[in-house]
Amino acid sequence: MEGRKLYLKLAQARVKLLEVELKKSGYNKFSNYEYYELNDFLPHVNKINLELKMIPIFNVGEEKATLTFYDCESDEKIEFSIKKCEVNIKGAANIQNLGGEQTYLRRYLYLNAYEISESDAVDLQPKTQPKEEKPNKNTKGNSDSEQQKPEQKPFDRQKCIEFILKLVGEDVDKLNAQLEPYGIKGLGEASDIALGVIYDNLSIEEYKKRILEITEDDKEKLKKQLAYHKIEKLEDANIKQLKLIHKYITGGK
Q1: Could you read off the pLDDT of 90-103 as tens digits, one per residue?
Q2: Which of 198, 202, 187, 199 lies closest to 90 in space, CA to CA?
Q3: Mean pLDDT score, 173-197
Q4: What residue spans of 93-191 are helical by DSSP H?
Q5: For position 47, what pLDDT does the model report?
Q6: Most buried of 80, 114, 129, 169, CB within 10 angstroms?
Q7: Do 87 and 205 contact (CB within 8 A), yes or no?
Q8: How far is the C-alpha of 20 from the C-alpha of 58, rounded, in Å?
Q9: Long-range contacts of range 1-5, CB-CB < 8 Å, 24 or more positions apart?
Q10: CB-side exposure of 173: number of CA atoms within 13 Å?
Q11: Cβ contacts of 179 within 8 Å, gap of 6 or more
Q12: Rounded CA gap, 222 and 230, in Å?
């Protein structure tokens, strides 16, 4: 059967990746869940691919993006694909739009190919649920704030939509590009999870745009920050790294 050996290698790669303790560096504050950034799993994936002698090649076509696995020991290949979703950042150069689009597509193709699960029901729950404790009658001098921990705020759907609209401004194409993968025409039709993901995608692109604008005349400053965070290019940075880079180059402003 064509592709049989490569399918076995891919299955082995998925199992090997399960043995790695992956940590999610992305965090969606609106839906209150963590998610994987490319940097969270790519280093481990590359080592496994080398060990199993196979290589995935990412490519973006006119209508879809593909992640094709090639067996280095045969002519077999396996292809994963996802519908293309254009990212239009208002006032940004074409290369910035291209970088944002490719980061988005690469991430979801790798998650699919290696069956890296996320956004499950568990991920959407608050990380810590404070237990209800009865006041200790024998304890004196303890204030209410010391006896009770504040509960995490529930997802504010309306506030999330307001932030998204603020990020897209009057750029209708930019908003439509985010809605298209979900097959919806407006934010009101989006699920809470979809709204959170859209907000994160737009936030990431906004930070990248600001950083590139600030460092346009000082490439060395950006280069030093990329080296410090151990990333090769800005497109590979996760939201936490982008915030730290932005904070550094703006002096915390």
Answers
A1: 444 455 556 667 77
A2: 202
A3: 82
A4: 94-113, 144-147, 157-168, 172-179
A5: 95
A6: 114
A7: yes
A8: 23
A9: 2/76, 3/76, 3/77, 3/78, 4/76, 5/71, 5/73, 5/74, 5/76
A10: 7
A11: 185, 186, 187, 190, 198
A12: 12
More confident residue, 21 or 32: 21
- What are the tokens at 96? 């910035």
Rounded to an integer, the average pLDDT of 177-203 is: 82
According to DSSP, residue 181 is labeled: G
* Contact between residue 195 and residue 160 where contact means Cβ atoms under 8 Å apart: yes
Model pLDDT, residue 131:
44
Rounded to whole angstroms, the Cα distance separating 99 from 109 reads 15
Crossing angle for the helix pair 192-214 and 172-179, to the nearest 10 degrees: 130
Integer Cα distance of 125 and 134 in angstroms: 24
In the chain, count H helices and then E strands.
9, 5
In the numeric block, the tokens 């180059």 are attached to 249
Contact predicate 62/84, CB 8 Å: yes
